[in-house]
Amino acid sequence: MPTTDGVGLPADYVPMGSLALTDGERWPTLPESDLRRVADARAHPAAPHWQHETGDRLEPADLAALASRAPVSASAGPSPPDWVAALVERAHRTVPRYRAAARDGRSGPTTPLRDLPTVTRRDLVTGLAAHVPLDVPLDRVLQGTSSGSTGAALRVPLHPRTVAADLLLLHALVTGAGASWPADRARLGLVNLVDQRAAFTYVSAMSAFPRPVGSPAPLMARVNLDVGAWRTPADRERWFAEHDPQVVSTSSVPLVHLLDLAEAGLAVRPVAVVNGATHVTPAVRRRVRDLWAAPLVDLYGLRETGPVAAACDAGREHALVARRVHVEVLDPAGRPLPAGRRGEVVVTVDENPYLPLLRYRTGDHAALGTDDAGRPVLLDLEGRAAVRFLDATGAARPSVDATQVLQAAGLTAWHLHQDADGDVRLSAVGDAAAAAAAVRAVREWLGRPVGLELLGDVGALGQGKPARYSSALDLP
Length: 476
What we know:
Layout: E1 4-5, H1 23-26, H2 32-42, H3 60-67, E2 75-76, H4 82-94, H5 96-104, H6 121-127, E3 142-146, E4 154-158, H7 160-176, E5 190-194, E6 202-205, E7 219-224, H8 233-243, E8 247-250, H9 252-263, E9 272-276, H10 282-292, E10 296-302, E11 306-311, E12 317-320, E13 325-330, E14 343-349, E15 357-370, E16 376-382, E17 388-390, E18 396-398, H11 399-409, E19 413-418, E20 424-429, H12 432-446, E21 450-455, E22 469-471
Parallel strand pairs: 1-3, 2-13, 5-7, 5-8, 8-9, 9-10, 19-22, 20-21
Antiparallel strand pairs: 3-4, 6-7, 10-11, 11-12, 12-16, 13-14, 14-15, 15-16, 17-18, 19-20
C-alpha cells in the first residue's frame, strides 16, 4: 500500500540511493517465487522510472493478527463506545501530551471524551513526538507523508499492520460494492495512481491480500501518469495494457486523465475504482460507469487518521467504516452539533499503535446522520475548510451549496473564486454547454456577474489536490 499522499520528491532525494533492506526483509512471509515476481516487475521493459523500493514488512504474527481482528461497529455522536474510554485511559498513561495534562490536572484517565481538547494538524506538525505512546517499540516504523491541502507536510509514523489493515478494508469495500477482486497473477492487483511532476513510485507485493493458501501474493504499484515519468509515451500505454490493473486507487485529477487515455484507446478495464483525497463529481462517476461498468468507491480519510467513511453511490451519504473510529461534528467554538447540523468532522481513532488520536480536527465539514439501517453516516461531506461566498444582498453562502449548483451543471471539475471586490470567477473543466450552465447557475445563486475560464484539462487546476473554492473576503 502507498505511504505517500500526493507528495513530490524531496529536493535532496536520490532515487534508489539508500537501499537498506533486501527484498526478503521487505516481505518476510513471501516465498522466493513471489520475490522474483517483484524483481521481474521492476525490470519490465516498459516500466516507468521507479523512484523507490519498499515492502509491507509483514511478519507471520501480523498476518495472524489481521486474520483474527474482531469486528467493530462504526460509531458517532455524543455517546462513544467502550473502546474510546479505554483509549483515553491508556493515552493518559502512555502518550506524552496526555501524561502532561494529567500531571497539570487538566484532564485524566477518566475524563469524558467530550471534555478533552481537540488536536489539530499543526499540533502534529510541530510536536509529533508528544502524540506517540512511550510504550510502543519503534523498530518497525514506516513513514507516511501527507501533503494536506494547506500548510507544511506531515510525516506520520505507521505500523506495517495498520497499512495492511487498510488494504483489507479496501478489499472489503470493493467487494461490498459488487465487484469481484480475486488474486489474479495475470493482472496487477492494485495501482495507486498519481499525476504530477515528481512522485514516489514503486512496485510492491500485497502479503495480506485475501487468497487461497499457496496462491502467489498479488502485486501492486504506485505509478505516475505524467509523461515525464516514463522513458517514452509508448511505454506508458504498453505497461498499462500488459498489467491491466484490477483496481485503480487514485484521486480526481489522475482519474480524469486515465479516463481520457482509456477513451482514446488505452487498454485498461478495472473491476473497481477507489477515489480518495478529493471530491469526485457525478460527471466523473458516470464516466467510470459508462466506460468500465465498474463501481466507484469514494473513500474519505486522512493519512493521520486512516479511512473514516466511504460512499459507493452518488448520494449524500458517506457511511462510517467499521473500525475503531469515532466521529463527532463540532461548531467553530468546538461544541458538539446535533444530527443534521453541519460542522467540522472530528475523529477519535485507535487503529495505528504509533499514533492514537483523540478528537482530531480534520478541517473537513459534514453533518451526522443515519442510513436506512440506522448506521451512522456523514451527510454532504465537504473536503477541507468550508469557504463562504458573499451574494449581492450581503448574505454569506456556504460552499456546500456551490457544490450542488456546479454538480447539477455537469462539470467534471472546477475552481470558484471570489476576490476582495466580490467579483466571482469560475475555472471549469467540462464541455462548453456545461460551463455555460454552471455560469448561469452561479450567477443566479449569488446574484453577481461570473467570469469564466474554460480549461481543456483537469490538470490545469493544479497538481496534487487542487482546492475547489477560495475567497479573498474575510467573512465572519
